[in-house]
Amino acid sequence: MTEAIHKSGFVNIVGNPNVGKSTLMNRLVGERISIITSKAQTTRHRILGIVNTETMQIVYSDTPGVLRPNYKLQESMLGFSESALGDADVLLYMTDVVEKIDKNEDFLQRVAKVECPVLLLINKIDLSNQTSLESLVETWHALLPKAEICPISASTGFNVALIQRRIEELLPPSPPYFEKDALTDRPARFFVTEIIREKILLYYQKEIPYSVEVIVEQFAEETTTIHIKSLIIVERESQKGIIIGHQGQALKKVGMMARKDLEKFFEKKIFLEMFVKVETDWRNRDNILRTFGYQID
Fold it and tell me: 288 vs 32, 196, 283, CA distance in Å?
């Protein structure tokens, strides 16, 4: 009896903001790896989610939405998306039924030139009808003739199992890249910052969430509890006041929302302290961006 060949590969998800990349990533991995909100620029880093079986390791990669950079933070975010074109074994280019097709043509031209298999996923099909969808498929086929096109709904799971099977077929023979019990390449502290940032994105309006970064100063894990001290970074004093709110009520509310999700994520009792600090124009400062884990040329 011949031994089964082990397959491994990087399956990278790219596309414009708000097309559902993080929702799909979480569904494919079966765990809540990426934070999700309706706001653009929710994902800032390239995040790996790893699925293991006895004969397979699929390394999914969620990336920031492709956009034209206005400051250095966004340049780094675009860099994460562009790097995903270079090391993919299978590329998932994600769009949806409502976005403009000619958005970010430069990036699309680069997608057309990649040598690995490309699955073009048209998301949110519940917002369309059969005639419109057929027309959209024809348009995308003309733009990316080598891509396999599949309409999906990441939120309901429609056709996601089909995508999973196709990915498994396309994976190359390879030993695993990570330990077989690994779920992600990110440390626990990273998920603390992301969950807190998700609540800030959900709770505050306008520019505030985009001017915020979160760092973990202390992560002390015990048998049944975790003590976390985190710092919310903003760019201006006025933003600090908004984050804290009247008599600290806004910060308290965000902390309560974050703590609930952190307890679910880590399956332990969480003691969470949050403080707010001003770092003027941090989104354009190389040294601070590097400290926060962004790649700066």
Answer: 28, 19, 8
Of 92, 90, 113, the closest CA to residue 172 belongs to: 90
Q: Tokens at residue 233, please?
A: 């970074």
Assess contact for 49 and 40: CB atoms under 8 A: no
Buried-exposed string 257-267: b where 16+ CB fall within 10 A, e elsewhere: bbbebbeebbe
> What pLDDT shows up at residue 2?
58
Q: Taking 90 as the threshold, does the pLDDT of residue 64 lie above it?
A: no
- CA distance linking residue 216 with residue 28, whole number of Å: 28
Cβ–Cβ < 8 Å for 43, 63: yes
Measured distance CA(286)–CA(65) in Å, rounded: 21
Residue-wise pLDDT for 201-249, tens only, equals: 999 988 888 899 999 999 999 999 999 999 999 999 999 999 999 999 9
Encoded amino acid at 48, one letter: L
Q: What is the DSSP letter of 173?
A: B
Per-state percent for the chain, helix, strand, coil, to nearest 5: 40, 25, 35
Alpha-carbon distance of 220 to 105, in angstroms, equals 46
For β-strands 90-96 and 118-123, DSSP reports them as parallel
Average pLDDT in the 105-123 region? Answer: 93
Write the secondary structure of 6-29 as one string of H (helix), E (strand) and C (coil): CEEEEEEEEECCCCCHHHHHHHHH
Residue (of 133, 132, 92) closest to 116 by Cα position: 92
What is the rounded CA–CA span in Å between residue 271 and residue 230? 11
